[in-house]
Each structure stands twice: as structure tokens, then as C-alpha cells.
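Why does residue order matter? Because the sequence determines the fold. Keep that principle in mind as you read this record.
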Amino acid sequence: MTVVLLTPASGATVSGTVSAVAQATSGYTITQVQFSLDGTVVATTPFAPYGYSWDTTQTANGAHALGAKAFDITGNTAVAVANVTVQNDAGTCSAITASNYAHVQAGRAHDMGGNAYANGSNQSMGLDNTFYATLLHQTGPNYWVIGACP
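Structure:
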């Protein structure tokens, strides 16, 4: 059994909406192909041609692993991975300094166990209260990073 990622090619730089297409072969019936991004399943399709539409603007710029895992009726599996770089136009940078509490309330961060974490990057910002302030900048939709704009 084999699976091959036809697009995007490993080593490619991608942006916008990308068609991820896989080809799976087996001596038995293929039951499904799962597509994953950095190890998390993002789409499953039972029908050839196996593919899904990836909106890279919802993914942080940088290196990512796009995977395809094929399954056949007997339980055999095969995996293919393309290492790609997402590079979307950063546009204008939005940077905000506020208390960690204010960042959580505004949806730029979330609270876990009394600590604030930047949405998207999950970087620890320290205690979630009004006494600690953090500078966050936005690098994508609902993706915030600690520090000033690049």
C-alpha cells in the first residue's frame, strides 16, 4: 500500500488557499485518506481524488508538516508527509500593550490555571491579572506572539 502527496510538494512555500491532493493505492479498497497539519487531523475524505482545501491564512507563517494517511479495508495504512513553509503577506502589524487580564478579556489570550497564554502561539505571559502587562503582536487571524512587531 502506498500514498503520495501530489500537491503541495515537499519544500514548497505556500500562501492563501492551497489544494492538498494525495494519491493512494492498495491491492484492496481504500476506505479513507486523512490529511493532517503538524500531526493534527484536519480533513478526512473517503473518495478519490483525495484532497482538501487548506486555507493557509489560518496557519502561522513558518515551517509545517502536511501529512496524508491512507487506510484500506484490511486495516493497512500508509503515510506521506510534505514539509512546507507558509508565507502569507503580513500586511500591517498590530501590537498592543495591556494587562494580561485585558488581553484575556479581549480574546487575544486565554487563561489556564490562573496564567495567561497568547492565543495561537500559546506563549506563557505570566499571571492572568491586572498587575502584569504584556506586549503582544498579531501574526495571523487569532494568532498572537509576545513582543513588538518585526
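The chain has two domains: 2-86, 94-146.
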